[in-house]
Amino acid sequence: MIVSIAALTVDCADAAAMGVFYRAAGGGEVTHSDADSCWVALGGLLLVFRAVPGYRPPTWPAPDVPVQMHFEFYVEDLDEAQDHLVGLGATVPAHQPHPEALRTLLDPAGHPFCIATRR
């Protein structure tokens, strides 16, 4: 192996809010937080949320502002997980390409992410 993944860095407007959301959603741990970033250890991966001046959220499904990154998560129950994540601050866009198999939600910074049950 030449490389191994160290972290995934995600741009946003409010790093602390993103850290709180993903820590609560995935049961992770905030390992570092300052004015510009929040680091969350989640499922063996380090997520680094970085506050970027002038951040513009994705406009998915319209391509005006690209998605930038996209998480896919497994859940036990789609409806229960969706309700829980909305309670944490996620929103549900009207456009749902495959709602019976997976759900697309938007995190507090507007990044789309999907939840699906294991098959």
Q: Could you describe the 3D structure shown?
A:
The protein is α/β, with parallel strands linked by helices and 119 residues long. The protein has one domain (7-117): Roll (2,3-Dihydroxybiphenyl 1,2-Dioxygenase, domain 1), CATH 3.10.180. The protein has two helices and seven strands; from the N terminus they run βαββββαββ. It has helices at residues 15-26, 78-88; strands at residues 7-12, 29-33, 37-42, 45-51, 71-75, 102-106, 112-117. It has a four-stranded mixed sheet, covered by helices on one side. It has a three-stranded mixed sheet with strand order 5-7-6, with helices on one face.
For the largest sheet, list the strands in their spatial order: 1-4-3-2
As residue ranges, the low-confidence spans are none
Q: Mind describing the biggest β-sheet?
A: 4 strands, mixed
SSE string, helices as H and strands as E: EHEEEEHEE
Helix content bin:
10-25%
What number of structural domains do the residues give? 1
Strand content: 25-35%
Return the CATH architecture: Roll
Total helices: the number is: 2
Question: Rough shape?
Answer: globular
Query: Strand pairing plus helix content: what structural class?
Result: alpha/beta
Give a summary of the structure in a few sentences.
The protein is α/β, with parallel strands linked by helices.
Topology readout:
Blueprint: E1 7-12, H1 15-26, E2 29-33, E3 37-42, E4 45-51, E5 71-75, H2 78-88, E6 102-106, E7 112-117
Parallel strand pairs: 1-4, 5-7
Antiparallel strand pairs: 2-3, 3-4, 6-7
